[in-house]
Amino acid sequence: MNQKDQFRLSIGLMAASLGLLVVFLGLWLKSAYKEEEQVLQKSTTQAFFTSIMGIQNEAFNELYGRPDMFTWHDSAGQTPPPDSLMPDKRILTRHQIRFPRDSNIVIRVNATSSTKMLPGDVQGGALSLIVSMVSDTLCPDTLFTKENNRQVFEIVRDKLHKTMTATQYPVTYKLIRLADDTLPHSTAFLSGKYMDSVTGDSYAVELSEYQPYLLKKILPEILFSALLLLTISGAFFLVYRSLIQQRRLTELKNDFINNVTHELKTPITTVGVAIEAMSNFNVLQNPGRTQEYLDISRLELQRLSILVDKVLKMSRFEQGGIDLKPEDLDLKGLVDEILLSMKLQFERRQAKVDFRTTAMEVHLQGDRTHLTSVLYNLLDNALKYSLESPEIDVALEEGEEQVSLTVSDKGIGIPAEFQDRIFDKFFRAPNGDIHNTKGHGLGLSYVAKVIREHRGQIRVDSSPGRGTRFTIQLPRVYAAG
């Protein structure tokens, strides 16, 4: 498995793990939401049945105190003592109510003072009968009328409202009468049901707009899930970014090795050409020509030494340390030497180089080795990024306190969106259709660092298709620190 496949596998595993975590947290929150929903439904059912039992208890309390209308008998037909009819005695078990006005109607009542619910979410009773007894409308003609049903509904609704108000219920609710095809709305659900065994009516409480309440109840779980997800997502992001950087650095390392080899070969090739010329073309018979080729070879070897030193000291550059050895030097003379050493390269590319200056000598304090490398990099870039017959212009101007050096070309230029990044390490601006340009993204980063260490400034002005101009400003007097 190559490195690219390993990278894809790592990213895939991280994405799958994060997806599984999202699914797990989603299921956990859904389960917590359902649990709170069930608790709310049970609480509503409890309040609803408590309201029903409250109505029944109030009705029986009133009926116990009305012996003029009803006659109470126990299961054996005997009239119980008056004190046994009082609700606070809590001793009634099973009684009969006989109507004096119609001796044929006998009602058997299971009376109990307990409000304990029956098991399950459905309860039954004769609420309509009890309401009719209290309102003195108990007769077959009125028991099953709509008016009686409406009266029962309103009594239950009012009692439910009092119960809910007393408990400060946090959701929207309403009492509904159920039919066989009655279903709650899509955003609501029902409490347990109460079934009137006399009229056959069923009642329930419909809850709506309860989602905010339930979300508030599971807010700790939501916050914990969000914190956990953010933490793990952040960790995965850091790992992902680290993998991306590691992959990028690996690619840059390989690119650096390939391209720095090319740069190291350039001065070697130049020296080889000079030696071959002196050996095969009778250059030794011409002392002036011989001296020129020897100077080129010496400067190219010096350049080779700089390139090797730059590679060996990359770790020190990374730590922010460039050891400068400032000395008094003639910058004009230095430029002349560099242009001479690159003469063969210019001729091979048929480049036209124009060096302009008004001074015979331009003195400043600086590190000769590093400034030489800076000029090599700028001139080499001007050659590399020019298509045909490069035209390079070098201008040197001196002021009272600083020196300005400009290297201009008419090459491919740099797009505006990349001009702020060209001095970043390993950055190379896209070159469109030009794919054979050698480089490793270190040259301009090195140039900028050297200029900054000299307490100078460098800027770039470029237009795609029209060329690039680098301007360097250096102080005449080197100030350490």
Task: Note down, in words, how this protein is organized.
The protein is of the alpha+beta class. The protein has 2 domains: 3-217, no CATH class; 260-475, 2-Layer Sandwich (Heat Shock Protein 90), CATH 3.30.565. It has helices spanning 3-64, 127-134, 140-143, 146-166, 211-217, 219-280, 287-312, 314-318, 331-341, 343-348, 368-384, 443-453, and strands at 71-74, 94-99, 102-110, 122-125, 172-178, 188-190, 193-196, 202-208, 327-330, 352-357, 363-366, 391-398, 402-409, 457-463, 467-475. The strands form 4 sheets. Strands 4, 5, 6, 7 and 8 form a 5-stranded mixed beta sheet that branches. A hairpin with a 3-residue loop joins β14 and β15 (467-475). The protein is rod-shaped and about 145 Å long.
The average pLDDT score comes to 77
Q: Count the E strands.
A: 15
The sequence of SSEs as H and E is: HEEEEHHHEEEEHHHHEHHEEHEEHEE
Query: How many domains would you count in the coordinates?
Result: 2
> Which secondary-structure class do the elements indicate?
alpha+beta
Known CATH architecture of the largest domain: 2-Layer Sandwich
Query: What is the highest CATH level, the class of the largest domain?
Result: Alpha Beta
Q: Quaternary arrangement of the chains shown?
A: single chain
The level of helicity is: 40-55%
User: How large a portion of the residues is in β-strands, by DSSP E?
Assistant: 15-25%
Number of helices, counting only DSSP H or I runs of 4 residues or more: 12
Shape: rod-shaped
Uncertain segments of ≥5 residues (pLDDT<50)?
71-77, 80-105, 109-119, 432-436
**Can you say what the CATH homologous superfamily of the largest domain is?**
Histidine kinase-like ATPase, C-terminal domain
Q: Round the Cα radius of gyration to an integer and report it.
A: 49 Å
Largest sheet: 5 strands, mixed
Could you tell me how far the N terminus lies from the C terminus, measured between alpha carbons in angstroms? 50 Å
The CATH topology annotation of the largest domain reads as Heat Shock Protein 90
